[in-house]
Amino acid sequence: MKNKSLAQVTDFDLKLLRIFKIVADCGSFSAAESLLGITRSAISLHMSDLEKRLGMRLCQRGRAGFALTDEGRDILRHSDTLMAAVETFRQQVNQMHRQLRGEFNIGIINNLVTQPMMQITNALEMLREKGPEIRINLSMSTAAEIERGLMDGRLHVGALPLTSPVSGLDYIRLYEEKSYLYCSSKHPLFACGDDSNDEHLAAYDAVAPSFRMTAETIGMHQMLHCTATASDREGIAFLILTGRFIGFLPDHYASQWIGKNMMRAIAPERLHYRSSIAAVTRKGRRPNAILEFFLSALSS
Description:
Elements: H1 11-26, H2 29-36, H3 40-54, E1 59-60, E2 67-68, H4 70-95, E3 101-108, H5 119-130, E4 133-140, H6 143-151, E5 157-161, E6 169-184, H7 198-201, E7 205-209, H8 215-222, E8 225-230, H9 233-241, E9 247-250, H10 251-258, E10 263-265, E11 272-282, H11 289-299
Parallel strand pairs: 3-4, 3-5, 7-8
Antiparallel strand pairs: 1-2, 5-11, 6-9, 6-10, 6-11
Helix pairs in contact: 1-2, 1-3, 1-4, 5-11
């Protein structure tokens, strides 16, 4: 590859370097697909762009597999130094002020706002009091999108169900949710008693989550006749409220419809499961005063 000088480092270069690091950490384009949320062909194009920008071959890919070149290993080491320098600069600027300043990016799964243990809400309140000039950027996303945002550096912290931990992330358990099987007031089961057996329930259409589930949650859904899926809990609620489906929801989220007599739990003593909600950060993250204060506020 033709040698060339790098005139300047742009935001696009930093993006390409972050993609390169994730690919290198994963060991292949295919393994990095799910974390980056893009196809192997797109990853290949990004890698080619980076190699053209730097004027050197960074990795070998093909039938023989994926391997970093000597230049690739050097660039990976230098990019770690660059990212650390950028983060250190941000923190040094923060330390010049009495109050915390800067951006704080947090990703949260839908429908946690009705959770009575308001640890996230209280921690955000404490963060705002500590640093009124902090710009809080809160996005509602799926668990997979939050994990990708943490891995590529777009998010500082996420809040999501603890199902199958990703090796590159750290998890702090916050609280447990209890989910029950619900039907709406339009459904034939609404007027029935709570003696429904598995065979009876299998006669009705049910909705299942399309996101990752624990073994206990999978077992509960295997008893049902799942003919629809939803990407989040709000989607499950939409389908339950049609009167055509039954499905599991966290009790704190379903309570708004139970209070209006629009939903009821089916055999709640038997048909329920627990799941943990966790605060998630990237392993090996650089020191960040805003994030550390937020995590401290969560634990308090």
